[in-house]
Amino acid sequence: MEFSFIDFIVGFLMVGAMAHIVASCAEVSFPSAFGYSPKANLIHGLLAAFIALDIYFFSYGFAATIGNSMLMGMFDLIILYALFGRMLHKKIQKKNLAVPARQA
Predict the structure, then answer these.
(1) pLDDT by residue (tens digit) across 21-51?
(2) Which of 72, 82, 88, 73 minimizes the C-alpha distance to 47?
(3) Angle CA 65–10–81, to nearest 5
(4) d(CA 61, CA 55)
């Protein structure tokens, strides 16, 4: 298998998108192209994911894009986390705060 620069850029953008969306949902101050706020990170992450998908689509075509299960899985995970990540994060935080600390 040979190295593909297009695939490298697409993967780089997708992983970066996930980092920004997670930072947005966790409300962590994380630098992005649009600032440090959670909304800026969400916009940055979604924009990077759509740019990655567009690069792949214009390089390989629609059938190859839809047929690439790893790319579609990453994109679906990013979209689902963008939609439900904040709710899940708050639910986990609430559950962790309700559990008393163990005595050593």
Answers:
(1) 988 888 888 888 888 888 999 999 999 999 9
(2) 82
(3) 85
(4) 10
